[in-house]
Automatic annotation (TrEMBL):
The keyword Transport does not apply. Residues 122-217 form the Acyl-CoA oxidase/dehydrogenase middle domain. Keywords: FAD, Flavoprotein, Oxidoreductase. It catalyses: a 2,3-saturated acyl-CoA + A = a 2,3-dehydroacyl-CoA + AH2. Residues 6-117 form the Acyl-CoA dehydrogenase/oxidase N-terminal domain. InterPro entries: Acyl-CoA_DH_CS, Acyl-CoA_Oxase/DH_mid-dom, Acyl-CoA_Oxase/DH_mid-dom_sf, AcylCo_DH-like_C, AcylCo_DH/oxidase_C, AcylCoA_DH/ox_N, AcylCoA_DH/ox_N_sf, AcylCoA_DH/oxidase_NM_dom_sf. It comes from the Bacteria. It comes from Halalkalibacter nanhaiisediminis. This is Acyl-CoA dehydrogenase.
């Protein structure tokens, strides 16, 4: 067993860490306050090749592995979880299903644009009436001539409004429930497509989350992704990888909170010595660091399995479950380490705490992760 990262993975970590420090961190608090997505940051990520880390060069990517992508999401989230999830949804929720299930033409048209970062990707599964029960979706797609006509709406779409390419799931054969769901690639300028309400959120506030609406939205039948009726499987397989991206985001958030806490614990003096020299705080830091390391190992293990072509659905769900819960715990403790100052916007830990909460909710709540893990355990 080898726990060392490869030279390429270390190089990508260093590049993303430097970029995050220089280009992302300085405006993180301000973008959070203003709920502002910054396209320039995304464009700079594209210049560095970060928008296409795991995709082959023939599709505009940099041909690195899935682990490198996970490391990039972790490093970005260490300073700004919003930028982290922008890349995560773009790569694992939009790029991945096109890479795995797209035709050569779809890959050249859509995956290339995503990989090169000229376009942003998003994923539309959740509806007002179907969150955890994804198969209960109501959005329909009906063939009419050479187009599918989509009607319905999707909510809680990460990258909603800023995305140009949406991977969307709709019912094509209602009587078949999940076997009647089909995936489509929808252009952001398709007729009948519009962006609805933008959510006002507790955390990840500079990552836009919106409703997307389909009113007789016409999509050429060539934009069907995979086969008719294969959509639910595509949605689930996509989430297998996506959940690992969220685990990486959670590890990054927790690490960012620990970094800040360690620095503060060394500098802040009470009772004549630094608070870090007092066991109440020192032991807290030790527990935080240990849980983060365990989360990181689970996250890297799932990413490694993905890179090696091994099955990783269970490990990915475990990584999100553990890392998400850890991020919430660690960031709450970080605020405690900072005391009254931690509760203010003078320090980043309150933002980390607000951002951490979503990692227990999206891409399947942590209760759903337990369902996924236990189903796999009992099926073995
Ligand atoms: N890979 C391949 N196939 C899978 C699969 C997987 N990981 N999981 C399920 N399937 C297949 C099953 O094998 C089964 O196929 P057959 O009928 O051919 O046997 C079929 O899918 C149905 O499986 P289930 O009976 O297990 O399905 P279910 O209806 O009970 O639902 C669920 C299972 C795990 C609860 C699923 O509904 C689920 O994951 N829910 C959570 C949804 C979710 O994560 N939403 C997040 C949306 S994205 C987001 O958060 C926003 C963002 O932008 C960040």
């Amino acid at each position: 067993m080898n726990f060392l990262l490869t030279e390429e993975q270390e190089m990508i970590r260093k590049m993303v860490r430097d970029f995050a420090k220089k280009e992302v961190e300085p405006t993180a608090a301000e973008r959070d306050e203003e709920e502002r997505f910054d396209r320039e940051i995304f464009d700079k990520m594209a210049e560095l090749g970060l928008t296409g880390i795991p995709w082959p060069e023939e599709y505009g990517g940099i041909g690195a592995d899935y682990m490198s992508y996970v490391i990039a999401v972790e490093e970005l989230s260490r300073v700004c979880a919003s930028v982290g999830v922008t890349l995560s949804a773009h790569t694992s929720l939009a790029g991945w299903p096109i890479y795995k299930f797209g035709t050569e033409e779809q890959k050249q048209t859509y995956l290339r644009a995503l990989a090169e970062g000229t376009k942003i990707g998003a994923y539309g599964l959740t509806e007002p009436g179907s969150g955890s029960d994804a198969a209960a979706m109501k959005t329909t797609a009906v063939l009419d001539g050479d187009d599918y006509v989509i009607n319905g709406s999707k909510i809680f779409i990460t990258n909603g409004g800023i995305a140009d390419i949406y991977v969307v799931f709709a019912v094509t054969e209602p009587e078949l429930r999940h076997k009647g769901v089909t995936a489509f690639i929808v252009d952001g300028d398709a007729p009948g497509f519009s962006v609805g309400k933008k959510e006002k959120k507790l955390g990840i506030r500079s990552s836009p989350t919106t409703e997307i609406i389909f009113e007789d939205c016409r999509v050429p039948k060539e934009n069907m992704l995979g086969r008719l009726g294969e959509g639910f499987k595509i949605a689930m397989m996509t989430l297998d990888g996506g959940r690992n991206g969220i685990a990486a985001q959670a590890v990054g958030i927790a690490q960012g909170a620990l970094d800040a806490s360690v620095e503060y614990a060394k500098a802040r003096k009470q009772f004549g010595k630094s608070i870090g020299a007092q066991q109440g705080i020192a032991f807290k830091l030790a527990d935080m660091a240990t849980k983060i390391e365990a989360s990181r190992l689970l996250t890297y293990q799932a990413a490694w399995k993905e890179s090696e072509g091994l099955s990783y659905g269970k490990e990915s769900a475990m990584s999100k479950l553990f890392a998400g819960d850890t991020a919430m715990e660690v960031t709450t403790e970080a605020v405690q380490v900072f005391g009254g100052y931690g509760y203010t916007k003078e320090y980043p830990v309150e933002r980390f705490m607000r951002d951490a909460k979503i990692t227990q909710i999206y891409e399947g709540t942590n209760e759903i992760q337990r369902l996924v893990i236990s189903k796999m355990l009992l099926a073995d």
